[in-house]
TrEMBL record:
Reactions the enzyme catalyzes: Hydrolysis of terminal, non-reducing beta-D-glucosyl residues with release of beta-D-glucose
PROSITE patterns: GLYCOSYL_HYDROL_F1_1, GLYCOSYL_HYDROL_F1_2
Protein's organism: Hymenobacter rigui
Protein name: Beta-glucosidase
SUPFAM superfamilies registered for this protein in UniProt: (Trans)glycosidases (SSF51445)
């Protein structure tokens, strides 16, 4: 059983949307592969995730995103639902293989036309589109040529981004280049748990350097092609990291190495600081993938950075883990509250990461472009979807954003993950992050209690600290 709710000890006791100011952006996020379905319709080519889900044992319950939430067909109703909920900013991604089935060359007019209709539909409903160019779904045709381990991917990606800018730049003002490059390089090329399923240090290092170059080159391509008013950013996964045994030198050193890998690997090159080799020496091996001029190509002056945070990580020295010499101590092993993803419920992580990113001398403004929690929730007999734990978690995290903002952190937006329940990568459909519940058998949408609360908050309702709430949440 889930306790009624969770609320942290710190953060504002009461706040409302007005406390963030009139220019603060409020939205929700989604991703093409996790929602669109229509994986092989209307000329779309296969992606690395279309391939990966068909490999035995890679996805829990052998589920696929062939249909997902069928957003490809149901976007008119879903965008109407956004309007009904009072959500004025919608972040989504373009499926590269839907636009360019082979990753380059011939354009799929039906595929690119889908995004034309989606963008126009958002604007007609008073919803501002925020477009992410790459959210992990590399075309299979490019993977056959080496994918992110092939340096040519920088050029392929730049040409793809130029196409998006030329087609949508007259209507889309807010752009994000990459979604969480640390995840698609690390989980996809080092750990093998995400597409394309590689387990190779060399593949990880090559993909890392090429993604860092593509991050900057993609930004430059957008800057050259878009109107001067366009806002260009990119997004980073991050987790506040703390030592398992504070004060123990080897745990402190392990924590610095984990921070360099999880939080600093892509943001520091973008800011002109190079890779964090001092704290993680194995990154020195990236030199083998460098070519003359790369150091000058890695930085780009983004207009904003997207901070994507869900939890913290507790780190312990581990002599049996080569190169990193560190391991993460899971929430269950520590006896602390956790979600359906096994992630610790720790809203203050968001505050700490906003502070960390803002501390860079040349950091641009920040937006929280993903934040949320997966808890088990289902419609009750009355047709409601009660999800008090998620509602309290979102309230707590938004409170932490306000805490950071009041301390001078230039954070100008918050996007909840996610709009609807969706396909959660290797975990399949079991974890539910959405503000809107999806019955995957019928595709019926039901706004959860947390979604109704978010709408009321955006309409001006004040959030008050509630008394008598449990101080823990554990996935059942």
């Amino acid at each position: 059983m889930l306790p009624p709710a969770f609320y942290p000890a710190s953060g504002p006791a009461a706040f409302s949307r007005a406390d963030f100011g009139p220019d603060f952006r409020w939205g929700v996020s989604a991703a093409a592969y996790q929602t669109e379905g229509a994986w092989n319709l209307d000329g779309k080519g296969p992606s690395i995730w279309d391939d990966f889900v068909r490999r035995r044992g890679r996805i829990k319950r052998s589920e696929t995103a062939d249909i997902a939430t069928d957003f490809y067909h149901r976007w008119p109703g879903d965008t109407h639902l956004l309007k009904q909920m009072g959500i004025a900013d919608f972040r989504f991604s373009v499926a590269w293989a839907r636009v360019l089935p082979a990753g380059r060359g011939s354009i799929n007019q039906k595929g690119i036309g889908f995004y034309d209709r989606l963008i126009d539909g958002c604007l007609e409903r008073g919803i501002t589109p925020w477009l992410t160019a790459y959210h992990w779904d590399l075309p299979s045709a490019l993977q056959q040529l080496g994918g992110w381990t092939n340096r040519s991917v920088v050029g392929w990606f730049t040409e793809y981004v130029e196409l998006l800018a030329a087609r949508f730049g007259d209507r889309v003002r807010h752009w994000m280049v990459l979604n969480e490059p640390m995840v698609f390089t690390g989980a996809g090329h080092l750990l093998g748990v995400h597409a394309p399923g590689r387990r190779s240090l060399g593949a990880f290092l090559a993909a890392t350097h090429h993604a860092a170059l593509a991050q900057a080159e993609g930004g430059r391509a957008l800057r050259a092609a878009l109107p001067a008013t366009a806002q260009i950013g990119t997004t980073f996964s991050c987790s506040y990291v703390t030592p398992s045994r504070p004060g123990l030198a080897r745990d402190e050193r392990a924590t610095r190495r984990a921070d360099a890998l999880l939080n600093r690997l892509f943001v520091e090159p973008a800011l002109g600081l190079g890779y964090p080799v001092v704290d993680l020496p194995v990154l020195g091996w990236l030199d083998r993938y460098h070519r003359p001029g790369d150091e000058a190509r890695l930085p780009f002056a983004f207009d904003f950075l997207g901070v994507q945070n869900y939890t913290r990580e507790v780190v312990q020295h581990a002599p049996y883990v080569p190169l990193l010499w560190a391991r993460l101590v899971g929430a269950a092993a520590r006896g602390v509250p956790f979600t359906d993803m096994g992630w610790e419920v720790y809203p203050e992580s968001l505050y700490h990461m906003l502070r960390q990113f803002a501390a860079y001398p040349n950091a641009p403004r920040l937006l929280v472009t993903e934040n949320g929690a997966a808890f088990p929730d289902q419609p009750n007999l009355m047709g409601r979807v009660p999800d008090a734990a998620r509602q309290a978690y979102l309230q707590a995290c938004i409170g932490q954003v306000l805490r950071a903002r009041r301390e001078g952190v230039p954070v100008d937006g918050y996007f909840a993950w996610s709009f609807t329940d969706n396909f959660e990568w290797a975990e399949g459909y079991a974890p539910r992050f959405g503000l809107v519940h999806v019955d995957y058998d019928t595709q019926r949408r039901t706004i959860k209690d947390s979604g109704h609360w978010y709408g009321r908050f955006l309409a001006g309702e004040e959030v008050r600290r509630q008394s008598g709430l449990h101080d823990s949440v554990t996935a059942s």
